Amino acid sequence: MNLQTKIASAASEAAEVLERLGVRQELWSAGSRAVRSPVTGETIAQVQDTSAERVQAAIEAAHAAFLTWRNVPAPRRGELVRLLGEELRGAKADLGRLVTLEAGKITSEAEGEVQEMIDICDYAVGLSRQLFGLTIATERADHRMMETWHPLGVVGVITAFNFPVAVWSWNSALAFVCGDSVIWKPSEKTPLTALAVQALFEKACARCPDAPEGLSAVVIGGREVGETLVDHPKVPLVSATGSTAMGRAVGPRLASRFARALLELGGNNAAILAPTADLDLALRGVAFAAMGTAGQRCTTLRRLFVHESLYDAFLPRLKSAYASVPVGDPRAAGTLVGPLIDHGAFEAMQRALADARAAGGQVTGGEPVEVAGGQAAYVRPALVEMPGQTDVVRRETFAPILYVMTYKDLAEAIALNNDVPQGLSSSIFTNDMREAELFTSARGSDCGIANVNIGPSGAEIGGAFGGEKETGGGREAGSDSWKAYMRRATNTVNYGRTLPLAQGVKFDI
């Protein structure tokens, strides 16, 4: 399909937004690394990679800041995060626009990502008064045993292009109230949003007398910058979001120095369409989960298992949605699917579709859509009817491809859901209580997220986000994820005048 769209210059708009957000011009106009907008394909900025010496200096400064920050009472640390939330509220439209220009998200999704940042700040402010441990029953008279939680240190945060600001906030808002400092390495494809968030954070710090210099820093560059964070002895935790291949490299390096890894890696998420499903609700849920963010969410729906009794009724409706969904400039009203991040992503999508055809798949969609004179990578989402779960289906392709298969009974569908290396998110559409409960039970989905009557994407910050198997096992955002950013100590206090030993040991002198 050819769709000619007149698109305004992304470069001029990015410059205006960066200026309004308070990012110094020399940070985005005088470097050697080109930043390209997926919206138009043009270069919108030139940033400078952070030198090895400056990365080291940033880590040392963050460690010094941690030594001060850990002594600030947690509710006062929460005040800084409250102020950050205020800055984000005031900048929501501009920061959302920058996310659109740099990552290609449609306006509502880009502003929704900033809203996630605001939400996690609100959550973390409350958390700053709830960093409590347990009092534990002890076998010794006149003793009290308890656990306490203490700040951990410098937290390295490595983020991916598809959520260029929200993932930083999931980690950093918690880390700051826990008493930690943060070094952020954004994706090489989306450094401008990181510079903008850092500028907003500095505004918040200027309003918070307790905040020390060096509490947060952004370091820009490729793999070597990330390796410095991973290998540095003063960075006790690295939270890394990206591919499974990246996690295989990062995990062992952190383990070699006994540092902590919080890994958010690949997802190959499935939904099951059961016989009792509300098909109107399921159609909307499947369409958003599979096509939103141009298929570039880690929670994107990539596999759909439709009960054989529903297949002939549901597939034509789904194909119609795929054929009619508006693809184009993400800034334009009515657009629901924006661009892929780059032409490399488009080529990977086409290779996966070729493999699917070779395995017997019937492809609907997947063709390029001409926008911005073909300089950017726009594509119509692809729906692939597959004869079974072949190797191409078990691979995650970071693009809008939905593989559709049939199943006969729920046990088979759950087995198919679990029969991939990844274990991030999953869902079932059903009005059968037994099916819903089985799917979310220990015998059901093996993913970190298991939903009923919604798709696998669209997580909220109140629940811990992450998955199992090759997804890495990490958890970010709500629930008790704050514990990853602190160290636990067990304390026993003897308030008596004798010294009874545990387990009845006798040692009299």
UniProtKB/TrEMBL annotation:
<dbReference type="Pfam" id="PF00171">
    <property type="entry name" value="Aldedh"/>
</dbReference>
<dbReference type="InterPro" id="IPR016161">
    <property type="entry name" value="Ald_DH/histidinol_DH"/>
</dbReference>
<comment type="subunit">
    <text>Homotetramer.</text>
</comment>
<dbReference type="InterPro" id="IPR029510">
    <property type="entry name" value="Ald_DH_CS_GLU"/>
</dbReference>
<comment type="similarity">
    <text>Belongs to the aldehyde dehydrogenase family.</text>
</comment>
<dbReference type="InterPro" id="IPR016163">
    <property type="entry name" value="Ald_DH_C"/>
</dbReference>
<dbReference type="InterPro" id="IPR015590">
    <property type="entry name" value="Aldehyde_DH_dom"/>
</dbReference>
<protein>
    <recommendedName>
        <fullName>aldehyde dehydrogenase (NAD(+))</fullName>
        <ecNumber>1.2.1.3</ecNumber>
    </recommendedName>
</protein>
<keyword id="KW-0560">Oxidoreductase</keyword>
<dbReference type="InterPro" id="IPR016162">
    <property type="entry name" value="Ald_DH_N"/>
</dbReference>
<keyword id="KW-0520">NAD</keyword>
<feature type="domain" description="Aldehyde dehydrogenase">
    <location>
        <begin position="33"/>
        <end position="488"/>
    </location>
</feature>
<dbReference type="InterPro" id="IPR044638">
    <property type="entry name" value="ALDH7A1-like"/>
</dbReference>
<feature type="active site">
    <location>
        <position position="264"/>
    </location>
</feature>
<dbReference type="GO" id="GO:0004029">
    <property type="term" value="F:aldehyde dehydrogenase (NAD+) activity"/>
</dbReference>
